[in-house]
Amino acid sequence: MIEREGSIPGVPCWIDSGRQSSDAAVEFYGKLFGWEFTDIAPAEVPGQYLIARLNAKTVAPIGVAEGNPANPTWNIYIQVEDADASAKAILEEGGTVTMEPVDAGEAGRMGFFAGRAGAEVAVRQSA
């Protein structure tokens, strides 16, 4: 993968995985790619937020929560300048907003959408 400073609007900038359990993912991706995992979720927050690292660099997080889909998913985030404007544009183009943009702490804002054919994508607006 190409390393770069910052994120460019219109380009994938982040991936993560949502699932209901982490055991199989940690074993599978740990063996397959050599990823090492650290749970960074605060103790008072239910679930887990496991950061996968390779050679001390973050490669992808795995979010574990009861409300996640029964089948594990991988989410691809596209960098945008304005997550709310992206939601409006998705609707104007016949897509669907599956999760309205929300604040995501230090990560900025994020939202989930589906295109006209149903393919899902997420957007990320830097803080």
Description of the structure:
This protein has 127 residues and is an alpha+beta fold. The protein folds into 2 domains: 61 residues, 2,3-Dihydroxybiphenyl 1,2-Dioxygenase, domain 1, CATH 3.10.180; 47 residues, 2,3-Dihydroxybiphenyl 1,2-Dioxygenase, domain 1 (Roll), CATH 3.10.180. Strands 2-3-4-1-5-8-7-6 form an 8-stranded mixed sheet, with helices on one face. It is globular, with a radius of gyration of 15 Å.
What's the SSE blueprint?
Blueprint: E1 12-19, H1 23-33, E2 36-39, E3 48-54, E4 57-64, E5 73-80, H2 83-92, E6 96-103, E7 109-114, E8 120-125
Parallel strand pairs: 1-4, 5-8
Antiparallel strand pairs: 1-5, 2-3, 3-4, 6-7, 7-8
Structural category = alpha+beta
- First CA to last CA: what distance? 24 Å
Number of domains: 2
CATH topology of the largest domain: 2,3-Dihydroxybiphenyl 1,2-Dioxygenase, domain 1
Number of beta-strand segments? 8
Helix content: 10-25%
Major sheet size, sense and barrel closure: 8 strands, mixed
Low-confidence residue ranges = none
- Average of per-residue pLDDT values: 90
CATH architecture level-2 label of the largest domain:
Roll
Shape: globular
CATH class of the largest domain reads Alpha Beta
Spatial extent as radius of gyration: 15 Å
Offer a quick outline of the entry:
By secondary structure, the chain is α+β, with helices and mostly antiparallel strands.
Primary descriptors:
alpha+beta, globular, 127 residues, 2,3-Dihydroxybiphenyl 1,2-Dioxygenase, domain 1, eight-stranded mixed beta sheet, 17% helix, 2 helices
